[in-house]
Amino acid sequence: MTVLPSWAQEVIARYESGTAGCFILHGNINDQFLLPDGEEPRLGRLNDFLLEVLLPQFEVVISYELGLGLKVERGREIVGEWVQGADDRLRSSPTDPLRAIRDLTNYLIYCRNLRAINREAPRVAVIVRQAHLVAPNNPTAFSNNLSAIASLLRSWAADARLNEHNQAAFLLSDHINNLHPLVAGNPRSSVQQIPLPGDEELEQAIVGLQSRFPVALEKFRDNLVLPARRLSGASLSAVEGLLQRRNHEKRPLDVDDLGELKKALVEKDCEGLIEFVEPDRSLEQVIGLDSVKERLRQDLALWRKDELQALPMGYLFCGPVGTGKTYLAECLAGEAGVPVVTLRNFRDRWVGSTEANLEKIFALLHALGRCIVFVDEADQALGQRESASGDSGVSSRVYSMIAREMSDPDNRGHLLWVLASSRPDLIEVDLKRPGRIDVKVPLFPTTTPAEGFALLRGLSKKRGLTIAKEAFEKLKDRVPDLLTPGAAEALAVKCFRLVKIEEIDAVEALCRCLDDYLPPITLKILRHQMRLAAEEATEASFVPERIRSRLEEAGDV
Q: Exposure string (b/e) for 13-49, b if CB count within 10 Å is 16 or more?
C-alpha cells in the first residue's frame, strides 16, 4: 500500500482543519511521484499526483502555465456554464499571465457568489505551475503587470478562506526564493517543501518499477531495500532513468555500482552545485595528530551506536596553509563510512538565484541521511552578516540561510558540518559558536626535527621510497623548522622525481632536496596563522605544550 508523503499529509490536514486553502509547493516539484494503482504503485508527475491523490473530490480543476496558458483539467462542462464561450476564452491567453490570473480570480469569485445566493457551486481547485515565472522575485524590474499578478495571487489566500468555499489553490515553484516576496511571504498561505524521496519512498518506487525493468534489478530481486538505501539522495526520475538505461543495455545493477551511480545521479540532479565524494581514506592514513584522531574516533563510535545527542553539530579545522585540513576532513568521512558533500559555486549574479541554489542543496543534504558537509575556505564561502557593497544583500542572506541550517537541532547526528580555514578569525563569530561548531581543532606544522623527519619518511614511503630510521642522524640538521604536511608532500614528490631521473639513493636525494628547500610562506605569516588556530581551540589538549611555548617565545600569545 502506497503511503502518502509527509508534505501531502500536511496539505490534507491543513485544508481539512480549515487553517489553509492556498498552498505554495516548492522544492522537488519536477520529480516523479508515487501514485496508487492497485497492488503496485506507478509513477506520475506532480500534476497527476494533485489530480488523482489530493483533488479527486473537486468537480473543477483549472491549471495555468506560462507557456501553455489555461487548461481545464476537470469539469469542462461546468466551467462552460460560467459564460458563453468561457472555455475558448480560457484557452486564448497563453502569453498573457495577468489576464489568465484575472480569469481564475474572477471564476473563484463567481463560484463564491453562487454559494452566497444559496445556489449550488462546484468545488474548484486552481493550479499555477512554474509560479516563479508568472510572479518572479525580481524587485529591480518594476512592472505594473507583475505587481498586479502578485497582488491577485496573494488575494487568493488573503481575501477569503478558500476552504470555506470548497476551493483550493496550489502555486508550484521550484524554489521559494524565486517567487515574488508578496506571494511567498503571505502568512495566510501554507508553504510546503517537497523533499527528495526517502528510503521508504524509493523502495516503493523500485518495487513498482521491478516489473518494467526486470533485467536491471535482477540481482536485487529479493532485496530491493539495498538499492533504495544506497541510492538515497537521488530523485525518482533519475532512478527510473537509470533502471531504464540498464534494462535496455541488458546490464543488471550490481552492489559495487551503486556508490558511483548515486554520485552521478545526485550531482546531475543538483546541477553542479555540489561535489559528491565517497572517500576511500581513513584516519589511519593521517600521520601524527594522535590526540585529534582519538577524539574523532570517539565521536564516530558514538555515531555508529546512534548516540546522536552526544555528537557535535560540526567541526572547524583551522591552521596554517598546508597543514592538511582538507585531507583530515576526507579521512574523517572515510572512517565514518558516509558520503562527504562539498559545496561548489552556488553563488549566482541573478536576484534570488543564490538563495534558490542553497535551498536546493539543503533539500539534497536532508535526503542523503547521514553525511558530512565539508566547506573549504570557510572564511570566504559562508558569507558575512553585513553585506559587502554592491552585492544587493546576497552575502548576508547566504550567511543567514547557512547559519539557520547549521543550528537546526534536528540535524544533529545527521548532517555533520566540517569547516576548514587558515583564517578562522574572518569567519563570523556566530557561525563558530557552540550549537553550530562545537569542536574547533587546530592543526600545526612540525616543531622538532624528529617530527619533520617522521613526516617526510611517511610521505616518501607512500611513493615506494625507503628511508631508514637511522638516516635521521644524517638528516636532522637539514629538516626545516615548522614543516607543514603540504610542504613535506612537495619535498617527497621532488625527492621521488630525483630518484627516478638520476637513479640515486632515496636518502641522498632527500638530502639534496632539503639543502635546496625554501619555505612556501614566510615565518611571520606562518606564526600568525598558528596563533589564530591556537586561539580557536575548544580544548587545551588540542594545543601541544611545545606549540604554546613556541608562540610564547615569539610573543604571539
A: ebbeeeebbbbbbbbbbebbbbbeeeeebbbbbbbeb
Identify whether residues 121 and 180 lie together within a single domain.
yes
Whether residue 547 is contained in a domain is answered as: no
Question: What value, to the nearest 5°, has the Cα angle with vertex 485 and ends 479 and 486?
Answer: 105
Rounded Cα–Cα distance for residues 493 and 500 (Å): 11
Pair (122, 139) in one structural domain = yes
CA dist 396 and 89 (Å) reads 46
Splitting the chain (557 residues) into consecutive groups of 10 residues, what average pLDDT does each group show?
A: 82 91 92 77 89 93 90 88 58 71 90 86 93 81 77 82 86 88 88 87 86 88 82 84 90 79 71 72 83 89 87 92 87 82 71 75 78 85 64 72 87 88 89 90 90 90 89 90 90 92 90 90 89 90 84 66
d(CA 70, CA 95): 10
Strands in 174-284 per DSSP E: 190-194, 274-277
Q: Are 141 and 151 in contact (CB under 8 A)?
A: no
Q: Do residues 229 and 164 share a domain?
A: no
| Domain encompassing residue 93 | 6-194
Based on the fold, state whether residues 22 and 95 are members of the same structural domain.
Answer: yes
Q: How many domains does the chain have?
A: 4
- Same-domain pairing of 159 and 33: yes
Q: Position of cell 481575501?
A: 159
- Does residue 437 sit in the same domain as residue 472? no
